[in-house]
Model the fold of this input.
Amino acid sequence: MFTETKKIGNFYSYLKATKENEIVIRTTLIEGGWYDIESDAQAAGFNIFRFMNPEYLARHEFAECYKLIRK
Done:
């Protein structure tokens, strides 16, 4: 599983270009609302889930993330 740490400009293009099958991204690194992001993920061939990352919670950091899994 790959964890992205950089801000993503064009989410759809990012997903189409990646070779990763599982990606975790903090929600703050992607601009747009849930429905836009979900739509881009589905169109790029990924399932997307929102979750609270326990690693970030343990460090008392912002923990809301997206997990993307290639279909």
User: Anything to note?
Assistant: DSSP finds three helices and four strands in the chain. The first helix runs from residue 11 to 17.
